[in-house]
Each structure stands twice: as structure tokens, then as C-alpha cells.
Amino acid sequence: MPFISRINRQSDYNIFSPSTPIVIDNGASYFRIGWAGETDPRVIFRNIVQRPRHKVTGETVTIVGDHDPGLLKYFDCTRSGPRSAFDSNVVYQFEIMEYILDFGFDRMGAIGSQIDHPVLITECVCNPVHSRSKMAELLFESYGVPSIAFGVDAAFSYKYNQQHGICDKDGLAISPGFSTSHVIPFVNGEPVYKGCCRTNVGGFHVTDYLKQLLSLKHPHHMARLTWEKVEDLKMEHCYIAPDYAEEAQLFQKGGKEVEDKTRYWQLPWVPPPTEEPPSEEELARKAAIKERQGQRLREMAEAKRSSRINELENELNNLEFLLQQLEQVEEKAIPSFLSDTGYVSKQEIESAVLKVNASLRKAKGEPKQAENEEKADASTNGKYPLINVPDNLLTPEQLKEKKRQIFLKTTTEGRQRAKQKRFEEELEREKKNQLEEERRLENPELYLEQMRVKYKDLYERVEQRKRLKTNGGHTNGNNLSGGVGRGERLNAAQRERMRLLTTAAFDRGKGEDTFGARDEDWQLYKLMSKDHDDDEDGADGDETELARISSRLQEIDPTFVPKRESTPSQPSAEVPRIRPLTKEDCQIVIGVERFRCPEVLFCPNLIGIDQVGLDEMVGVSLRRMPSEDACLVDRLTSSILMTGGSCLLPGMGERLEAGIRMIRPCGSPIKVVRALDPILDAWRGASVYASSLLFPQQTFSKMDYYEKGEYWLRGYQPRYSL
Amino acid sequence: MVLPTHLSFKKIQMYEKYPKGQARGRHWKHLKQILQAENYQNYPPDELNYVNIESPPSMHPCKKICDITGFEAPYSDPRTNLRYANAEVFKLVRSLPNDYVQRYLALRNAAVVLK
Predict the structure, then answer these.
(1) Cβ contacts (< 8 Å) between B100 and chain A: which residues?
(2) Helix A492-509 crosses helix A444-470 at what angle (to 10 degrees)?
(3) Looking at the complex, does the CB of residue A125 fall below 8 Å from at least one CB of chain B?
(4) A93, B70: Cβ pair inside 8 Å?
(5) A22 forms bridges with which residues in the sheet?
(6) A/B interface, count of CB pairs below 8 Å
(7) Which pLDDT tens digit goes with each residue over A635-654?
């Protein structure tokens, strides 16, 4: 329920006679202006001025009151925020005040060369004379106002409610305003300022407190929490707890009631698009496409294979034909015959035939003949008959043959040994696996734990080694080019080589060169060689073990996720997922704040203002009253009027009554009433006051102002009962 | 609403009073300076003025509420000076960045102010 600004320009300015006063309620939050005798002010707007620059022309314009957010398109408001003419509740910046008055009179429809109406304007209690005289000067000099009267807003409100029978002629006005709160006692319908008191806390502080708390609680939505919005939130949701401690305890305990009392402000939030799992058809379609592609690839491979087989067969035929021809050719004619085929000898052709045969078999997918041969050879030891024969019994050809046989034998034996070793290793692994399986079955938990620990250890060791090797290098350690620029880091091995090279270079230079005298010196070159870089004997073992354990863990532990390589070779497809904003993330929760913020009116200590709160102010005010008449005090407390914007907070009356009952003696009459309209009553009271026939006597003219001087203005005090 | 620059009902226009392009110093006083210039000490002490109608400090003990949650706060953190209601809030208090601590303290005018 925000206040609506009323700023339509009035068109009936002419019909009011110059004797009709203009009434202004110059509140720190709202400026209200209208004609005396009317029930409502004509124009209401927020008492602020903004002076932004036009974005294109750079011209400074003056915007008074609430502005249309649409205007921001054209104006740059970043340099100048909204400004108020008020410091606390005193007008101190008269340039801003002038803009506001300009706007107020303009909206009233003022025409002519000056404002030819008496003006009644409100001010704060005990306004410093500097502010008062400046205001008078402004009105007289700039606007040509014939006469002025100053009055206190709370007093006008009290008088208005007194006329409507809400409160008596003796009573108290409690007026929590925008930046200050006052308690003013009234005796016989006249304010007794002797007994009044002021606490510098008001609606502004409530809103500001709420704004700060909410923006501290929801730092992401700080931009949403504008002053205007928070003001609206305050008016809509804040209430005054009958007992703060009790209410806070209730909230601390939580429960259904608290849930009901907590308010949520849902900011605009768009649910993230939900990804639907692909439908059956989609899956089927994709599978079909894949199948078709596979089929095509297979067909292509098949065609390639058959063409190759064809080719090879042709070549084989050709070669065989050549061999047949060769048999018919005489021994001497062979070279000339072969010269145009590209082969040198018959043996070469034969070997080519063998080769083609082998590739043909391979192409056809037949098993290697060699293996069969090997099997056959393994049993027959008589394949190398020449080996055991002493050299001196052999002809040179046989010697050559013997060498070949020895070579063949050693290679086959070596192959056999390797095979044997592989087989044994296989057996070993099998045994190990079995053992582990047994251990696992014995105590699965413990086993899993051990595996994990082992995995972690190994992983760390491998990582450590990798780090050492690369040592922060930018190329992941495989800087094959070896061209390392200045300032670039080398890995450990490269650094060692550098060191060796430099020391070697130094050795050359001095005295007698003894390098090479000892055999160890030559070791240096081995160390320097680049091939030396990767000595990974230990590392290899660790890495294979790591791979084994991680695969094993993957088998038996569903929760296991192998750690990623620290530097993945290609950017992985999955980007770190951002948690999508949920509905709750875009909610501003207003729970305890609902009554915590208005509590500052009763407990200004909460925001560091060391003054009494509203309820205690009544006690202070009564104590300050000049006469200690118990009867009068009782009369005052039985007619307590609440006025001012903050009185609209629900629970204010009850809380005030409870608070005042605590400081008054038992059995004292206490009655707290709320003004008819806590916001507009001040203006209405002033309007009634200004329309009275005796009002002109309460005003002073420009002549008075300049003749009587500032001292007189200090003591200026209107009579409220006319 | 944008204000027109020339208003017929004014005897002295804004642009005459504050000519454009002319540097002018601060032509206004803060409330503190206004009050100082009022020289209230030269007047009898029982005469009313803006300053002496102010309310005195409260007689009640200051209510201590948790800076974060607003609940009753039996404890206060010696490191940050924030008041807190329970262990849970304490954890939060200790995890707050200093910036936030100072802003919470500033709410009750207890922040460290460097001058």
C-alpha cells in the first residue's frame, strides 16, 4: 500500500481569492500542498529532488518527487542520487527546498507574477532559527508571499483529532515521523513544549534497517532491494511484536505458526528447461543410422580386401609364370632375360613369391604358417644339423650355412624363452588374483579399504613423479624439440644435462686437458645424451600397478571413480556443471525481520542510537512537565494520540499501551488511540487552522520579518486554539 | 516530474540565483553547524531549543540481540564483536568475511571507523 503521488497540475488556481491561504505540510518524506479549508491536499509527492544529466545533450534537469522509471532511458542518474532538503527533520539545503516549492506551487496551478496567498507551512518542534529564517526569506523573496505562519505538524494533527473527538484537550501526541519521533504533551489544547522530547529514530531507520538486513542476508539480490521496494515491504509486512523476546523465541523454536508468519518475496524466476530422455523412436532411429554406417564401412573394407587379394594373386601368377620361363632359359641368358623384369636373380624372385604368398595369406585371414612351422621345429632338433659339427670339417658354404643356423636357433630359442616367461607371468598373475579374491571374500570391507589406500598411495607417487619430471613445465614434459627458450622452465633431466654441459665446457678451458684419461670421463656423454631423459623403470612398474588396481577397484567398487589425469590431453567434454538457480534461490525471506526492524522505534539501541524508545519517551515527557499535578498526568495518559506514518504498523497501539503501563503506577488510566488518518491529519488540521477567521493574526509579513529581526523569530509561536 | 526552468510566479528565478557555469562553494550548513551557530549556550538553560528537547538514554538495560538472526543473544564473539544466539550462528559468524562483519557491526553503530 504505497502512498500514491498526486501531481496533476491543478487548473482552478484563479478561483481562490488572495486571502485563501496555501497550506503546506513539509514532511521529511512527503510534501503535501493544498488550499486551506479543503479536506485533502491537492498535491502530494515525495520530498526529494534528483538532478540527472540528459544523456545526449548533457543538460542538467531537475526532477522532483518520484520519477517515472521510463525517464531513466534519457537521463543519467548514476552521478546524482535522490537528495532531500532535510538533515534529520530540519531543512538545511534551501536550494533543494526551492526546487520542491517551485514544483509544489507549479502543480497548484500558480500563475501571475507571484504567489499572492498567505502560506502556512509546517516545521519541526523547536526548529533552529537559522532554518526558520531561511525558509521565511525564501518564501518572501523568491515567491512574494504576503504572509507566513509556521506550525508543528503533530500539533495540527492533535488539534484535528481533538475536533473530531478522538482525544481530549489534555493529552499526549506520540508522533513517530520519518527521521525523528516526538512526544508532545497538550494542556488545554495547547502544546507544552517544555514537556516534549525527541528521539532521533523514525520510519527511515526502520526501512534502512530492513534494507540492510535483507541485503546482508541476500547479497545476490542486493540490486533488487531498492529503497522504494523495501519501503513497500515494510508497510506491507512489518508489525510490532507485543513482546520482542517472546516473539523471537517463538521464531527460534520454529513450527507451524512461524511458518505462517514468515513471508516470502518471490523474485522473477524462470525454471530451467528440463531435459527429457530421448524417446524410443529417437533411440531406434539413432541405432539404425549407426547400423547403416557400420554396414557401409564393413562393405568398404570387404571390397578393399577382395581387390587386394586379387592384386596379390595376379602378382603371384606373374611371378610363377616368370619362374617357369626362367627354367626354360639357359643359365647364361638369365641376367639379360631378367634385366627388363627388374629382378636380379632367381633367388630374388623366389623370395618375392614367398613374400607375396605370405601377404596373400594374411589378406585372406589364414593363420600364419610360421607358427605351424615353429611348432614343428620345436620338436625336431635335427633342423640345425651343422651346429654341432666343428668348423674345420666344413666347406666355406657350409660355414655360412652354419652361421645362419646358429642365428636361427638362438632367435627361436629366445622366442621360446620369452613365451615361457609370458606364460609364467600369466600363471603368477592368476595366482595373485586368486589370492586376492580369497582375501576379498574373507573380509570384503577391509579388502576394499586396503585397495583404496593402495590406490591412493600409488596415485600420489605417480603424480609426484610426473610433477617432478615436468616440474611445472608448460609442455607436459614431452618437449621433444629440446629448443628451450630463455626463462622457460626445464624438467629435472633437462636441467641436469644443462648442468653437465656447462661444467664440461668450463673444464675444457683451464690448464691441461686431462679429459678422457680415465674411462669414467666418457660416461659423461652418456649422461648428456638426450635419450637419457626418460628413465622410467620404477615409474613403469608403478603405473602398471596403478592401472591394475584401478581396474580392479572399478570391478568391485561401484562408487569408485578413477582420478582424472591432472592434464587431460584434450579438453574433456563435460564442463563443470553450474547448479541451476532454484525457486528458493530467488526468494527473499522475511521472517524475524518483520518485527525486528520496527523494534528500533522502541529500542533505538538496536541501531546504536542511545536514546529512549517510544514507550519510555512518554515517561520522559511526563517527568519534564513543569507541574507535578497527578491529576493532570492521569488526564494526559488517558488521551494518548498516535499520529505519523509509523503508527500504521500493526500492533503499535497495544505495544505502546503495554509499555506505558509499565512505567506508570499501577491503576493509572491509560488510553492509546490512533489518529483518524496518521499521515494526512497534520495537513487537515493545518487546513482547518488556516481557514479560521483568526488565522491572519498568527501570520507575519515580510515587513514584520525585517523589522522585528531574528530574535523575535526565535520566539515566534502560533496559538493553536483559535 | 521534470521541472521547467522558468516559472512565472517566481520573483527571482532559479537561474538568476544560481547562474550556470559559476563555481559556488557550499552555500549551506549541516545541521550540526546550524546548531553550533545557534549559540544555545548564550541563552538561559531552561529555554527550549532543538538540542535540549532530545530524549535521554534509556534506563532499561540494553537489549542484546543476535546480529545475524535477531534472536536473543547470550554470547558475543570476542574476535568479531558480533553477538550471536547459538553455536550454529557462531559457525556462520566465524565464516563471515570481514566486510560483512563490519557491515553487521555498522548496523548498530559499532563498526571500526577509521578517520
Answers:
(1) 216
(2) 40
(3) yes
(4) no
(5) A35, A119
(6) 170
(7) 999 999 999 989 999 999 99
| A304, A296 contact by CB (below 8 A) | no
- A443 by Cβ neighbours in 10 Å (0-12 / 13-18 / 19+) ranks as exposed
**Considering CB atoms only, which of B1, B37, B55 is closest to A611?**
B55
Question: Cβ of A534 under 8 Å from any chain B Cβ?
Answer: no
Locate CATH 3.90.640.10 in chain A: 203-263+591-672
Pick from A248-252, A296-300, A627-631, A698-702: least confident? A627-631
CB spacing of A607 vs B63 below 8 angstroms: no
* CA–CA distance, A177 with A416 (Å, rounded to integer): 104
User: What mean pLDDT comes out for the span A404-428?
Assistant: 90
Distance (Å) from the alpha carbon of A645 to chain B's nearest alpha carbon: 20
Contacts of B103 (CB under 8 A, 6+ apart): A212, A216, B111
Per the CB < 8 Å rule, is A199 touching B55? Answer: yes
In whole angstroms, give the CA distance from residue A386 to residue A164. Answer: 140
Answer whether residue B7 shows pLDDT above 50.
yes
Q: Are strands A197-199 and A181-187 parallel, antiparallel or unpaired?
A: antiparallel
Fold type of domain A13-48+84-166+679-714? Nucleotidyltransferase; domain 5 (3.30.420)
Q: Which of B27, B65, B85 sits opposite A606 (nearest CB)?
A: B65
Cross-strand partners of A26: A31
State mean pLDDT over B15-34: 83
DSSP track, A242-275: SSHHHHHHHHHH--HHHHHH-EEEEPP-PPPPPP
Mean pLDDT along residues A474-479: 45
Q: Does A244 touch chain B (CB under 8 A)?
A: yes
**Closest by Cβ to A605, choosing from B12, B34, B62:** B62
Closest chain B residue by Cα to residue A626: B46
Tell me the mean pLDDT in the region B20-28: 77
Q: Identify which of A131, A248, A608 has the shortest CB distance to residue B70.
A: A248
Provide the pLDDT for residue A326. 79
Cβ-count burial of A49 within 10 angstroms (0-12 exposed, 13-18 middle, 19+ buried)?
buried
CATH among 3.30.70.260, 3.40.462.10, 3.90.640.10, 1.10.10.10 for A203-263+591-672:
3.90.640.10
CB pair distance less than 8 Å for A607 and B108? yes
Q: Do A596 and B70 touch (CB under 8 A)?
A: yes
Percent of chain A with pLDDT over 90: 47
Nearest to A182, CA basis, from A311, A386, A28, A341: A28
Please check the confidence at residue A467 and state whether its pLDDT lies above 80.
no
Contact B2 A63 (CB under 8 A): yes
Give span(s): CATH 3.30.420.40, chain A.
13-48+84-166+679-714
State whether residue A252 sits within 8 Å of chain B by CB. Answer: yes
